[in-house]
Amino acid sequence: MSIAFVILSIGLLVFLITYLKVNSFIAFLLVSIFSGILLGLPLPDLAKSIQKGLGDTLGSLVTIIVLGAMLGKLVASSGAAQQISGSLIKFFGEKHISWGLMVTGFVIGIPLFYNVGFVLMIPLIFALVQRYKLNPLMAGVPMMASLSVAHGYLPPHPSPAALVAQFGANMGLTLSYGILVSIPAIILAGPLFAKTLGHIQPKASKSFVTQEIPADELPSMTSSFLTALLPVFLLVCTTALDIQLGKDSPASPILHLIADPAMVMLIAICFATYTLGLRLGKSMESVMSIYGDAVKDVAMILLIIAGAGTFKEVLLASGVSKEIAGHLGNLPIPPLVLGWLMAAIIRVCIGSATIAGLTAAGMILPIVSAGGVNPNLMVLSIGAGSLMFSHVNDTGFWMFKEYFNLSVKETIRSWSLMETIVSITGLLGVLVLNQIL
Fold it and tell me: Which residues cross the membrane (predicted)?
């Protein structure tokens, strides 16, 4: 009966968010209270569970997500993103411009949050469309596929970072595995899939072409790449060194301090403050103003993650998570596939990749805690599932439709199928890695 109550609670969550348009944070709180009462949690324990869920979830994530947002905002506003995109497109050449846009989207997508990257890259896409007489989808799909993969698979993006914390995974290993899984996903869903969309001819809109920063005012190519990718370099290098040196090494404590995700982001933001701020003639006050705006951009994302944490904690405190894990563990479905499937179903119902990933994590957590499944790969599996078949209940669907001037049918044929390819390819990549590891 308790499992039926959980299904009813998820159904209520879908109804509140999708049909009544209730704010996701408020919806999570209401559903957490509703499910706690149905599952028989004493009211004092229910209140404590909600507080614990909020505190535990945000405690390990606030620093990472906020500093990540600050870094992304500075990369965008300083012109570093423009420098990165221009350099990569020049490197790949006009003939292979879709591949250049794919790599650009992936590099920029690592530090930038998805919506910021989407809006930031649209002017670049349409400027290239007009300059080289391209089909907008041939230019847009490869870049959007890369942005989507980075958003769903890779920390320090909110959902993957939250899953790493919940599952006790290693941020560096998850990022390394995520990059490996991302490569086939963005190739298939990007340049290769875009070739099948040639018959769709949307009209490029001149209204999205914005004034570029003059070349002589841009940061250097080296500075742009190094600053944007510094968190990746630090996480991957410290993880590799930790494995090579071992726990008994005298350098191990220092290495662990540097490898902590919050410390990595702090080092990156201090470096960026100089390279993309003070060094370019910006005052400390103006750089801090950019950081302040970045915090406003992610405030609601943090609240949604916190809300999802309350729902997870209620499921744990009531004991229903272990009951669900017991039933799921008896199903003839591998845990990694199960995590992907749960996230995919919630994604199709709700539309939000972040909510889909966090909600699925709350139910799959006992299976991960019991061992027998690689937590780093489970993060990626759920992340891939959370991108499955974006459609009319997803804001990304409508952003893509309006920016590229498509019909609903054409958006499903392009955007929705692109997201589906990303999701399925990600799962297959995770399963292959699982066999190797």
Answer: 26-46, 58-76, 96-129, 136-154, 174-197, 218-241, 253-277, 298-320, 340-365, 377-400, 412-433
